[in-house]
Amino acid sequence: MRFPARPAQAPPKLPEWDPAWSRIVEAKTPEGPHSFHVLDTLEVLRTNGLEPSGTILALHGNPTWSYLWRHLAQATVDTARSGGRVWRLIAPDQLDMGFSERLAHNSLPTPHGAEVRRMSQRIDDFDAVVTPLLAEVASSAAPQDGVADAASTGRNGAASADTAASAEHPIVTIGHDWGGVLSLGWAARNADRVSASISLNTAVHQPEDAPIPAPLRATLAGPMLPTATVVTDGFLRVTMSLGDLDPEIKDAFRSPYESASRRHGIGGFVADIPVDESHPSYSELQRVGADIAAFDHPALLVWGPKDPVFLERYLRDLRQRLPQADVHRFELGSHLVSEDYDVAGVVTDWLETQFPAGGTGANAPSDATAASEATVAENATAAPARGVTSILDARHDDEAIASVDFAQTPAQQITWRHLWHVTTSIAGGLLELGVRPGDRVSMLVPPGNNLTAALYACLKIGAVAVVADAGLGPKGMTRATSSADPQWIIGELPGLGLARAFNWPGRRISVSPLGSVAAKLFKVETSLTALSRTTHHAQLPTPAATDDAAILFTSGSTGPAKGVRYTHGDISALAAVLTRVFDVREGTGLVAGFPPFALLGPAIGATSVTPDMSVTKPKTLTASAISDAIIAGHSTMVFASPAAYKNVAATASDLDEEQKAACARVELVLSAGAPVPLGLMDSIAEVFPNASIHSPYGMTEGLLLTDIDHAGVRAADATPNLGVCVGRPIDGVELALAPIDDSGSAADVLERGVDAQGHLGEFVVSAAHIKSGYDNLWATTAASARDDLEGRTWHRTNDIGHIDAAGRVWLEGRLQHAVTTPRGPVGPGGLEALIDSDEQVSRSSIVGIGPAGTQSLVAVLDAEGTDLSPGLAPLDLTSRLRELVAEVLGHDLTAVLVAPMFPTDIRHNSKIDRSRLATWTDHVLSGGSVRTKV
Fold it and tell me: Quick one: where's region Disordered (predicted)?
């Protein structure tokens, strides 16, 4: 089959494409001149009177073309127009790709065919195009079509002085797919003129012991390669299916490849994938990989984890080669991640932090990195001098009870001496096994003595514990584990079974010894039991306060669970808060029905008791179970979630006299995870008649931020404020408010004191014990810590509400759930608390239906535990609720529906997924079935 040569040409009219971006460039490659279609924003910038002060060199992969960078082109032009750095984007179509020149070929492509364009040639092509284009700006020459001369640099050679990167004009590369490794390779070989590099899903190294990804294996198999890539457009269509693309966008991507005669480059690109040492491009890929590992400039890796081709192992390899790289994962993103998410926004934000307009130049730390480092330093400074394990170490000879685990049968008690001995032995055993400071260890162990031993052994040697709720489910747990990328897994059989089934990363350690068959099946190397017999090491590593201690995953109630980074200083600061604010100190007996606080016991010297309950089902905690735990630990303090307390109150009639007396000895009851309404507070007070009952407000990113007691809830309940009152900031917490505008966005300017009172906004907090950042979520970290006020590090909570004249905080929902009505934004939580006061309502949710800014308010009621039937609410109830809402808002509800069930998070059984309810409501109001799954 013969493929004729064709010159480069400009694209036709396409959606989201500015024809002014297109130019045809004749470039001298080592083989001679070739014509390239290039996306170049220089003309558009100069038309706007803007001269570039930085250049981005972009390279697409297969089978895309420069159309892939249209969003980045528009974003950089918009940034320049708004006063930011003027970035010029240069994105050539590779030869035989896009609208660049089609070379003459006499045969279909095969992996070892002579007519396949190889990796080394493609890097040369890129160099031949971009080098003279860079010189255009340096010499202030107007862009002209013609023959571009790469002789001034030679093949991948050093740039001349006028094209070298500088603080005033940084040069940044970005690539995707195989364009990612090519652009990284070019950047590494031109490090003297490149300031930074960015890559989207790509791969550098194919592990010898890992199979080629299934889609590529199928395409590379014998005659399938030319059939799937050239003779038909199967490969192209499959790639376009790896993203949520509108039909016209798919057509635009396919436009350069309408016939087999124009698709040889697609097949050639696939054929040039070096799958083994015999491949012609194998040695070149090895050289490129080594070059990339020597690249020490700033780097950003943006990743779509649902990519079926560029799997997690390729990101792991890239991170090892580029340890300085910032990483941002779009957890639900696939191969075409820049089509799924606003990658252009992440890139321009990252570039602004690295090369601020009018800033001091390249290689400055990014805002997210700087904010994270500032938080770590701030927390370390504020943290107590003693480390997380110092109390445990000091009590190494204490025979008092340190922990009681009711998950064991019978309940297992261990002393401080035993706990110290076991954790020290396991720590030494982990070191001998190969665990090193900074290694990540996934904890697939339920709360109890085993988890405490594993966690504190890791803390002693500086290993980082990764903790994710089993309640996330297999898919959620897989996303979390893949994101954290642990080197080790410690688990009981259910967790090890999931790790095996879903191929989670990490060498495996079981809690208890396994037989040889089971150990082989689960790939287990040893057990905690075996490690606990290790002879104590004379000296263990000493972690610094700024070192990471744990990655704690959020509940995933409003999207994929996020890993929250806590340093040793953060955890020490949190322990200090408990001691300072709630008088929790050495000798206190603590029943922890809320898992995060069960792990803090050894850090504060408290006797921790894990009650008999399912950690993934808080409602399984009964009054008998909690009272038995109180008795076993001589406890005076109880900590659980509202869902757990609700069942405790409901089963209180089962208590015998001894259990009632134990509950009467409790001095402090804490509830976390969700606000506690007055009715539940009253019920808790009946179970614990002599306790001070508190409901602190916090989140995974900051576990204790405000506090309110029983009397405070009663006083707040008597006011006309909307929402749920969570009290005032605790000692050491600073609170600000970012007002919400009519579009539902939170302002960039923060308000404090009197200025912050009385209107809806997002709560922004600062404290020594807040997180040090999100793990592998550069953009999320940057957004959450973007505020600069009083030189402190702040965290945007994503929770909304208002502050009343008494300084009390009232929660009214999540920022993304704010309803933007024609009369202004409404926090759903405020109306929900009002509606929940009706005797027929057990639980409600307010959702907005319609376009932003004109949304209608709809109340959705939970049918569970009531006599309400799914569908439209009864007329009398609807009328009553509409009048109630109209009285406080001035406008009423559009409809009141009853849902068959409410979607909530697993950890607390209380955080309502209002987005899912809104989708269900829209479906029902459009005529859909009320039985549709929420």
Answer: 141-166
- Confidence band of 138 (pLDDT split at 50, 70, 90): low
In whole angstroms, give the CA distance from residue 118 to residue 29: 13
Q: What three-state secondary structure class fits 541?
A: coil
Averaged pLDDT for residues 894-915? 77
Q: Encoding tokens for residue 743?
A: 């579009």
Contact between residue 118 and residue 272 where contact means Cβ atoms under 8 Å apart: yes
Average pLDDT over residues 103-126: 93
CATH number of 568-718: 3.40.50.12780
- CATH topology for 416-561 is Rossmann fold (3.40.50)
Of 175-184, 611-620, 636-645, minimum mean pLDDT range: 611-620
Query: Is residue 301 helix, strand or coil?
Result: strand
Q: Are the beta carbons of 608 and 452 closer than 8 angstroms?
A: yes
DSSP 26-46: EEEETTEEEEEEEEE-HHHHH
Taking the C-alpha atoms of residue 639 and residue 670, their distance in angstroms, rounded to an integer, is 5
User: Taking Cα atoms as reference points, which of 83, 97, 102 lies closest to residue 34?
Assistant: 102
What's the rounded Cα separation, in Å, for the pair 464 and 457?
10
Report yes or no: 234 and 243 within 8 Å, Cβ to Cβ. no
CATH of 818-933, one of 3.20.20.20, 3.50.50.60, 3.30.830.10, 3.30.300.30: 3.30.300.30
Sequence-separated (6 or more) residues with CB below 8 Å from residue 303 = 200, 201, 315, 327, 328, 329, 330, 333, 337
pLDDT confidence of residue 914: 86
> Are 265 and 118 within 8 A, CB to CB?
no
Q: Across the strands, what pairs with 657?
A: none
Start and end residues for every CATH 3.40.50.12780 domain found in the chain:
568-718
Quote the CA–CA distance of 320 and 318 in Å, as a whole number: 5
AA identity, residue 394: A
Which pLDDT value is given to residue 141? 41
Question: Per-residue pLDDT for 391 more than 80?
Answer: yes
Which pLDDT score, from 0 to 100, does residue 149 have? Answer: 43
pTM: 0.89
Helix, strand, or coil (residue 409): coil
Homologous superfamily of 19-139+165-354 in CATH? Answer: Alpha/Beta hydrolase fold, catalytic domain (3.40.50.1820)
Do β-strands 196-199 and 299-303 pair in parallel, antiparallel, or remain unpaired? parallel
Q: Is the peptide bond before 63 cis (omega within 30 degrees of 0)?
A: yes
Instruction: Output the pLDDT for position 586.
Output: 86
- Amino acid present at 893: L
Does pLDDT of 842 surpass 60?
yes
The letter for the amino acid at 926 is S
Q: Give the span between the Cα atoms of 424 and 426, in whole angstroms.
A: 6
The Cα–Cα gap between 544 and 743 comes to: 44
How many Cβ atoms from other residues are within 10 Å of residue 97's Cβ?
31
Which residues have CB under 8 Å from 834's CB, separation 6+? 722, 884, 885, 888
**Amino acid occupying residue 384:** P
Query: CATH code for 729-817?
Result: 2.30.38.10
Q: How many CA atoms lie within 13 A of 497 on its CB side?
A: 5
Nearest to 353 by CA among 294, 300, 296: 300
**Beta pairing class for 464-467 and 548-553:** parallel
Distance CA 228, CA 158 (A): 40
Residue 211 tokens read as 């199979």
Structure confidence at residue 380 (pLDDT): 45
Cα 878 to Cα 861: distance, rounded to the nearest angstrom: 11
- For 235-245, write each residue's pLDDT tens digit: 999 999 998 89
Q: Tell me the pLDDT tens digit for each residue of 252-279.
A: 999 999 999 999 999 999 999 988 889 9
Report which DSSP code applies to 548. Answer: E
Percent helix / strand / coil, the chain, rounded to 5: 40, 20, 40
pLDDT category, 915, cuts 50, 70, 90?
confident
In the chain, CATH 2.30.38.10 sits at: 729-817
